[in-house]
User: What shape does this take?
Amino acid sequence: MEAAAARVVRCGGSELSLRRAVFSADSRYLLCVSGDFVKVYSTATEECVHVLQGHRDLVTGIQLNPNNHLQLYSCSFDGTIKLWDYLDGILIKTFTVGHKLHALFTHARAEDSVFVTINKEKPDVFQLVSVPLPRTPRQDAEAGEPRLVLDCISPSPKCVAFGGQGDYVAAVRDFYLSVYFFRKKATSRFTLSSSENRKHAKNNFTCVACHPKEDCIATGHKDGKIRLWRGFDDERKYTYTCLHWHHDLVMDLAFSATGSSLLSGGRESVLVEWRDAAEKTKEFLPRLGATIEHIAVAPAGDLLCTSHADNKIIVIGRNLEACAVIQGLVRDSSVLTGLMVDPRTKALVLNGKPGHLQFYSLQSDKQLYNLDIVQQEYINDCGLVQIELTKAAFGCFGAWLATVEQRQEKEGELELQMKLWAYNKKTQGFLLNTKVSAPHEDRVTALCFRSADKSDVPTLVTASRDGRFKVWVLADDSDIYRKAEGWTCDFVGSYHKYQATNCCFSEDGSLLAVSFEETVTIWESDTWELRCTFCQRAGRVRHLCFGRLTCSKYLLGATESGTLCCWNLLSCALEWSTKLGVSVMEPDPRSEHVAAVARSSGGSDLFVFKPSEPRPLYVQRSICSEEVRWGVFVPRDVPEALASEALQWLNRSQFYFLTASQSLLTFSSKSPEEKLTPTSKQLLAEESLPATPFYFLLGRHRQQRGEQADGAADGERVQLPTTEGVPAVSELLHTPAHVLPSAAFLCSLFINSLLLATEAPSAEETPEDAEMEEEGERDSSEEEDAAPEQAQQAGLPDGGDGGDEAEALQQQLSKCAEKELRKLRRVDYSWVAVP
Amino acid sequence: MGEFKVHRVRFFNYVPSGIRCVAYNNQSNRLAVSRTDGTVEIYNLSANYFQEKFFPGHESRATEALCWAKGQRLFSAGLNGEIIEYDLQALDIKYSMDAFGGPIWSMAASPSGSQLLVGCEDGSVKLFQINPDKIQFERNFDRQKSRILSLSWHPSGTHIAAGSIDYISVFDIKSGSAVHKMLVDRQYMGVSKRKCIIWGVAFLSDGTVISVDSAGKVQFWDSATGTLVKTHLVANADVQSIAVSDQEDSFVVGTAEGTVFHFQLVSVTSNSSEKQWVRTKPFQHHTHDVRTVAHSPTALISGGTDTHLVIRPLMEKVEVKNYDAALRKITFPHRRLISCSKKRQLLLFQFSHHLDLWRLGSTVATGKTSGKFLVPGKHGDTLPLSKDADHLLQLKTKGPENIICSCVSPCGSWIAYSTASRFFLRRLNYEHDNLSLHRVSKMPACLRSAVQIMFSEDSTKLFVASNQGSLHILRLLEGSFKHLHTFQAQSGTVESMCLLAVSPDGNWLAASGTSAGVHVYSVKRLKLHCTVPAYNFPVTALAIAPKTNNLVIAHSDQQIFEYSIPDKQYTEWSRAIQKQGFHHHWLQRDTPITHIGFHPKRPAHILLHDAYMFCIIDKSLPLPNDKTLLYNPLPPTNESDVIRRRTAHAFKISKKYKPLLFMDLLDEGTLVAVERPLDDIIAQLPPPIKKKKFGT
Assistant: This one.
């Protein structure tokens, strides 16, 4: 492949609930894994503060450094453990272990070593090992030789827990609980009866948690029971209590920070708090929306959070009230609607929670909102046939949304409903306008709006397997009580009773193409007259689209048997055709390009071409190993000018695609080094400065003032400061609200920054600046002075005795303190004096 | 095994009465159980929980409290206001004494065993001194407002805790005044109940008082300050009983929902001495109220309205995996309630206050149509009844006392039964279908009450074991009787004989007492013939084989001995099986053998049964060893004789009929089996507390 090939990158939407989230020590931040990254969210504002990038594979575990709660360890399938400063998003160190790491654990007792889960020999035999981390100043280091702690454990981190004091580690798998005591270096194993009889049928362990203060282990089981084990240091005298509320398996357990209560969750989507670990005193937080996968408790004890199966993290206060929701891309089991782009918000729209349509922001990697389409309570019960949202389409620049939902019992009749939603500017959301029950007699296979000018009547076409396509238009539905408009069926077309498989409007909306199995029919959209038909006898037409812009005279069709055809609408003849098993075909709305993804033996291949030319512009083989289900072009806000000829097609829009395993991928023209630069730059910049946003603000301000002073000294320069140009203002606007200093500080600063510097610097200001400059000079000189001094001191201990050494140390300390003081003096406190 | 026609009888609608109190004696490892009808049973926990003694009930004596004192002395107190001491040797009531405080609700013996406390309806706590022959009233404590429902001594014997309604009082023994009064919260899950009844208290040596109450709470109180330390809400209904282990490291409570909760004192962390009480395992072995619990060193014992006595071993305390390591549920008495007249095919059922006489149905069919009878030859076939079973007679006793024992003669024309104070003999005359009953009057003065009654095979002699340890022989004549002889008890002992066996030829009488030891008397010469060597475990069943006069003895540890009476020694077969040992499955069986019979035509066969199996021991076949399957089902007919012979061993076991209360051979080819399905018993009990069951 040529050098200009675009890289396939995962573009967010990764699972946030893969592992337990971790709270920072002060509960202000919530850290969670997200694909190859670690994300730092603010618990107060739900905003993503930092994205810790650096791992080259899925991050499988994060834990705070027990010796420094401002640092975070993370482990990944790429075999490395990385240490981060999560507040500033800086990678501090990387330790290479060499095995695929499945989970990470830390505790305060094990100094300089962490615990990871690896599998060495057989694919399903996992071991918990302790990995010593060497103390080296280098950024990259080889981790020490792993020492085995427990063998034959479950790969899930939920199945391993460390005792509160770090005296023991408990691991569960299948029907046994193993406890390893670090002091005794012995393992105790407790087995539950797993006999076939009904009573013990689902005794399997699912998760484990350890009491932070007492010797008590809580285990969750498949039958919904929670067992509290005590006295397990004696293999005979151990005892356990049962708590039973869950009817389905217990997904996760957590003790509160003080251990006074136990939290449990499962498929019921109810968080249960067992106060004093007693059966009768339990509290519930119900209706959490989806299966609780993980529960994490803040070390400060004021917050806890639940990670859910629908890629959501709910931050919950101690009084069991949800206070923040961090929602990622919901991964439904089947994305029936495909990928769409909301023309208004440029958000990606697809199936979300069952019966919902989710609006997902690609830029900020978070869900914007959920639109409840089905508007029925979802009952989480296996074997129940649910109403499925199968089709959706946006029309008229996002003013209308059409959705189709269906439900079919095995033998029963098909329940079909089409809903049309109008965008309401007041509420900034979609409101149900028309509900059409049974729009067709069989499944709706395609749905498209006529992209037309504002003056035209909004028109929608639905194609169905019952052999008809229907045209729906917006008509006046007013009566004596109100003015209203609704959708009515305007025209029903059919072609030889073939099943309609696809439909598509031309760019200007003048022509409608409807494919009936193997035949493509072209209809005039004004009169609904059949203009012409194309038939290639090459299998049912699966994809159909018109060319755009200069290529609007071409119609493209891809068939099931693997033929891609291009018809010329002017000549009504086949322009070209090629053998290509197209699984996804998407036209770029901003250019003539059409992207087609075909399945081949090595995975999926991407072809980008213009309908006018049978030769592809750009080919990339095996973009991913699995099948690509859906793809979409998302227009860029600002067109990018890519130098490479081959990547011209990415200038105006970006191509996103969804694979069978629900990962959302895209093409990036940047090289990985380029992508990483921001972090490393930051690293350089922040090595010298304590990087609090507050400091940034003041530091910049001072700098600018210095510049201004320079400018003033140069001569008269009258310039009205624009708001964009003032860094104070931009900082104010761009810094997340929760990290800003209080408004009292900012107010004066803000006012100050708006003051015009037309007059010559006042008498007060000049000396101050001069002093500052002086100071700066002094600083530098002192720095130079300090170096030899230090060298001297380093030389001293060699010859001097112990007393001298201590003295020297003291001296050094006092020097350090002095330096510190000087540094403090350097900080600009002028803003305090501002009247 | 042979083929039998089986009468499967299910019309014995016996319902055991509910258990009210249990008291565990640590010294002798015995358990006293009192039932709601006033019966008191003594179980020997060392002898596989065999019910070795029982004291018949009495309508007016509703036992509310039961306790052991001074080692082997058993006291009970009830709502008639009397304290009763039992004579465990003579199986009789030693004396009863009115406490003069109205109905007695609770009783506790001091840790030293020298004093007895009773809590009465009028709110008084009375202290009695236990003297060697009797108890003596010592003094009253400060009277409380309402009845004293529970009492517990501090292990040092200086203080007591008394549970009343809504509060717990702590008394000082010396002054007899209340030191503290601890009020119990009436609130139950936010709802204020009218009263909170303290069903049980336990005083621990560190001064903690544990109380259980009707609001479902288990509460820990500090008796020094009179303050509440901790509350465990364990049930939605009453918690009715509590028992603490001797080490005070665990206790058990029973609730009205049928659940038993175990609490243990566990250390908070492994390296600190701080300990806390933790509710550990719940056990749901009961369907109804658990009225009482006991804590033996190795097991939790509970009993309640659903009539089961459940012994749940604590696995961590059981050293080796033996008989004690399994859960035991004792429902049926370990004595015979049914006797059978083989000649007339009659069954006599004994209830607490009446006797039922039934004639078995009969069939003419030998074919394979279904009905009520079974022919094991064509396995599982049911034969139609040509004549239904007949309820011939119901004999009610007068007076409040329960029937101790009863017997119908093999000829079917005599019925003998006894209560605690009277012995009754009835003569039955059959005239075609009519039945007439004659009372035989003028019983001899020595026949006051009987522990066991037995007729000789030819129905001419009646053997009666009285509760004074003597055996009486009566000759039965047409409508009258003659006292022949009395075997007096061995000099110095007053132990009564509980089991009797008569040889079919009428020459030998074997009798066994509560402690091991079987005496064989010669009826002809009217003297003691020999004594079978003593064995550690009590005898559960006795029988003498026809012709050979071998005495077969079953013990509670599931051992079986065969003793030749003429030779005065164990038989060869018995020595052989003792040498080889019984199959381990045989020894692990749950219930004792309650009946032994013989086949008249096959002298090598011994028929015996317990509650869950019927067994024919064929002495001619090789004994099973631990590798062979003990419970082998009937081998399929298509298998060759060789395989059949190879797998065959002496023990032929059928588990088809259970729970089996009685099984005997009527004639060569007919068996009668009396079953009492547990569901039928539960159906006759009052409905249990309704509990919401998930998914219903």
User: Anything to note?
Assistant: The two ends of chain A are 65 Å apart (CA to CA).
